Amino acid sequence: AAAALTPFTVTRRIGHPYQNRTPPKRKKPRTSFSRVQICELEKRFHRQKYLASAERAALAKSLKMTDAQVKTWFQNRRTKWRRQTAEEREAERQQASRLMLQLQHDAFQKSLNESMQPDPLCLHNSSLFALQNLQPWEEESAKMPPVTSLV
């Protein structure tokens, strides 16, 4: 009776779903290059960021490396180079930004400290003369010179 209620039989899986697949290939151990090989690779990279296949093959042969090793080394080195240059550009950008802020601050402070040139219209009108000499950014303790009418 129970079989009639279920139109298909459910088979339960035992273990992990990927357990029955072929085992993964073992990861190749990291290749260690000699200091001479690294030095030659770095010198070449400094001169040339990309190698043609013939250049890569010749370099690999001269360094007793495989073509794939040289290719992979250059790919990894270009990635490192891009990251380093991006970090350097960001540091330069931040330094330039700080410099600009400092220059703006200095210019603003200088403009606050400079005495304003009297406006000819203000010289002949005591109210305008008083307004022109009003500097609200100065501290309360700073004594303002008395306003004298030139009229």
TrEMBL record:
The alphabetized list of GO BP terms reads:
animal organ development
Q: What is the lineage of its organism?
A: Eukaryota, Metazoa, Chordata, Craniata, Vertebrata
From the Swiss-Prot or TrEMBL record, give the protein name: TLX3 protein
PROSITE patterns given in the database record: HOMEOBOX_1 (PS00027), HOMEOBOX_2 (PS50071)
| CDD domains per the UniProt record, alphabetical | homeodomain
Coiled-coil ranges per UniProt: none
Which residues belong to any copy of the Homeobox domain?
24-84
InterPro entries (UniProt xref): HD, HD_metazoa, Homeobox_CS, Homeodomain-like_sf, TLX1/2/3
Does the UniProt entry include the keyword Cytoplasm?
no
Respond yes or no to whether keyword Nucleotide-binding is given for this record.
Answer: no
The record's GO CC annotations read:
nucleus
Residue ranges for the region (Disordered) are: 14-33
Q: Could you list this entry's UniProt keywords, alphabetically sorted.
A: Developmental protein, DNA-binding, Homeobox, Nucleus
- Function recorded in the entry: Seems to be involved in the development of cranial sensory innervation from peripheral ganglia.
Quick one: where is this thing mainly located? nucleus
Q: Which PANTHER family match?
A: IP01054P, T-CELL LEUKEMIA HOMEOBOX PROTEIN 3
Where, per UniProt, does this protein localize? Nucleus
Q: Which Pfam families match?
A: Homeodomain
Give GO terms: molecular function aspect only.
Answer: DNA-binding transcription factor activity, RNA polymerase II-specific; RNA polymerase II cis-regulatory region sequence-specific DNA binding
Residue ranges for the DNA-binding region feature of this UniProt entry: 26-85
Q: Which domain of life is it from?
A: Eukaryota
